[in-house]
Amino acid sequence: MSGNSLVIDTNIILYLLNGDETLIPVLEEKQLYISFITQMELLSFHKINEHDKKIIKSFIKDCIVIDIPYDIKKLAIELRKKCNVKLPDAIIAATSLFLNAPIVTADRGFKKMDQDINLVFYEKE
Questions:
Q1: CATH architecture classification, 5-121
Q2: Taking CA atoms, which of 31, 32, 72, 123 is between 20 and 30 Å from 24?
Q3: Running DSSP on this structure, what letter comes out for residue 69?
Q4: Which residues lie below 8 Å from residue 40, measured CB to CB, with a gap of 6+?
Q5: pLDDT value of residue 125
Q6: Distance between CA atoms of 125 and 118, rounded to whole angstroms?
Q7: pLDDT at 93
Q8: Domain layout of the chain by residue ranges
Q9: pTM, 2 dp
Q10: From which residue to which does any coiled coil extend (predicted)?
């Protein structure tokens, strides 16, 4: 994986879609990857309207969605056991490890895995 790749977490996409422009310099010119977990979280929100659904689907089309091969499952299990994190977070972090790409998130739960993953933590101002 090149240094031009990033895995982005659900909250980062939500910030972007809500107009947070401070993230643009971090993400521009990068190949963006998302876990299937992020895709599911975005599209399964119970209050999503049709307009927002179209915007989210358009954003997802600009990303590469990574499903869960055995290697990601194995990494997720190891992270969950070692760091005591939620399973969806472990899968997203394992996707980052599998791709050898940093993960951009604002979710503090990922800080538990800071020693094991390449974390780019975003603090919304």
A1: 3-Layer(aba) Sandwich (3.40)
A2: 72
A3: -
A4: none
A5: 72
A6: 22
A7: 97
A8: 5-121
A9: 0.91
A10: none
Q: Which residue in 106, 117, 55, 34 sits closest to 80, CA to CA?
A: 117
Residue 32 token pair:
């963006």
In one-letter notation, the amino acid at residue 1 is M
- Give me the residue label for tokens 């919304």: 124
Walking along the chain (125 residues) 10 residues at a time, the average pLDDT comes out as 86 93 92 97 91 95 96 97 96 97 96 95 86
User: Number of H helices and number of E strands within the chain?
Assistant: 6, 5
The CA distance from 36 to 95, in Å, is 9
How many Å apart are CA 11 and CA 98, to the nearest integer?
21
pLDDT of amino acid 46: 86
Classified as helix, coil or strand, 45 is coil
* Predicted local distance difference test score (pLDDT) of residue 1: 55
Contacts 24+ apart (CB under 8 A), 112-115: 112/83, 112/84, 112/85, 113/79, 113/83, 113/85, 113/89
Element of type H or E holding 74: helix 70-83
